[in-house]
Specification:
It contains five helices and 20 strands. The chain is an alpha+beta fold and 349 residues long. It has two domains: 188 residues, Glutaredoxin (3-Layer(aba) Sandwich); 151 residues, Jelly Rolls (Sandwich), CATH 2.60.120.260. The relative contact order is 0.14.
């Protein structure tokens, strides 16, 4: 999310943390060396790894946070490269640097990694030590390091898959790998991992907490950190949203206090996702979604049935709408049948 790039910006987290919605960038080589990994607060799928211990290997470091839709759409490629080149000298490391507070929970990250079938090493970067060591600013971001420890390539945001894989092949060959398969991986990405429909994407990521939200039009506006009964206007225009029911809007999340609260959102995209979770661990929250006042039917996302019914069980990204027909402005509504739903951000694709 640099001014010279062709992109649509999401909000920055603090001064430097920038979740990427869409980045189109010409890649360039970089020649700095791989920094230490000592700042990791834990590891999944591996004993702790070090830069020195990885000397002689080609290394791919992938910065991610498990609710990021932009990273999720890159995952099929990262997984495929990890499988294809594991025995040829490539080490893939996922540096999990959290955005939301619940992503600091080791158990949540572990569950998400298993559900996504991630088997490569994961460095838990709760304190942003690895993030800052790489001077990184983006989710997703990958850095490819040669066998001498030099960072030879980076990719910020989605895309660049062919170029990245060619760089991997080049660096493996430089390191002495023989008879490499010169073909490129083919992925069958579905659900939230399917590539975005960029031509029809007119809605950008939007946070639900008051600190970073846009387009909120419930009468009276947001009341910070207090219970309030909100109402929704009859009409919403593109990229406006509203609450109805008894909610508490916090800096990071907006939480439902009583059953049957609703969120309405006017969007223009093929897919709609919502990051949400129960406000108390172990609780389940039933919900129902509609699109233009009707059940989603064949436009259901992977986390609802054709009638629009679903359930929040853990904090994560839930895909609610995946349209099959013509993409136009749509009115999305989600009604929570139980209280204590915590909602964080809408994403689209």
């Amino acid at each position: 999310m640099v001014g010279a790039l062709t992109l649509l910006l999401a909000f920055a987290v603090g001064a430097t943390i920038k979740p990427v919605w869409s980045i189109r960038k010409q890649m360039k080589q970089v020649t700095s060396h791989m920094p230490p990994l000592a700042g990791a607060t834990g590891w999944l799928n591996s004993e702790p790894l070090t830069a020195a211990g990885l000397h002689g290997k080609v290394v791919l470091v992938d910065f991610w946070t498990y609710t990021c839709i932009n990273w999720r759409r890159t995952l099929p490629y990262i997984n495929a490269w990890a499988r294809k080149y594991k025995d040829r000298g490539l080490v893939v490391i996922g540096a999990h640097t959290p955005e939301f507070s619940f992503e600091h929970n080791f158990g949540n990250v572990s569950v998400a990694a298993k559900e996504m079938k991630i088997s490569y090493p994961i460095a838990i970067d709760d304190n942003y030590a690895i993030w800052h060591a790489f001077s990184n600013e983006y989710w997703p971001a990958l850095y490819i390091i040669d066998a001498k420890g030099r960072i030879r390539h980076h990719q910020f945001g989605e895309g660049g898959y062919q170029e990245s894989e060619r760089i991997i092949q080049q660096l493996l060959a430089e390191a002495g790998a023989k008879d490499l398969d010169s073909g490129l991986v083919s992925v069958d990405a579905r659900g939230p991992e399917a590539a975005a429909d960029w031509q029809n994407l007119q809605s950008s990521e939007n946070y639900v907490g008051y600190e970073r939200t846009e387009g909120f039009i419930s009468p009276g506006g947001a009341v910070a950190d207090q219970d309030k009964v909100y109402a929704s206007p009859a009409k919403l225009t593109l990229n406006q949203w509203a609450l109805s029911g008894d909610w508490t809007m916090g800096t990071e999340a907006t939480t439902l206090n009583k059953a049957n609260g609703r969120i309405r959102y006017c969007f223009h995209a093929r897919n709609l996702q919502l990051v949400m979770g129960p406000s108390t661990s172990g609780m389940h929250v039933r919900f129902r979604v509609t699109i233009d006042g009707r059940i989603p039917g064949i436009d259901q996302g992977v986390d609802v049935d054709s009638q629009g019914n679903g359930q929040i069980t853990v904090p994560r990204m839930y895909q609610l709408i995946q349209q099959k027909g013509v993409i136009v402005d749509r009115l999305f509504e989600i009604e929570f049948l139980d209280p204590w739903a915590a909602t964080y951000s809408f994403t689209f694709g």
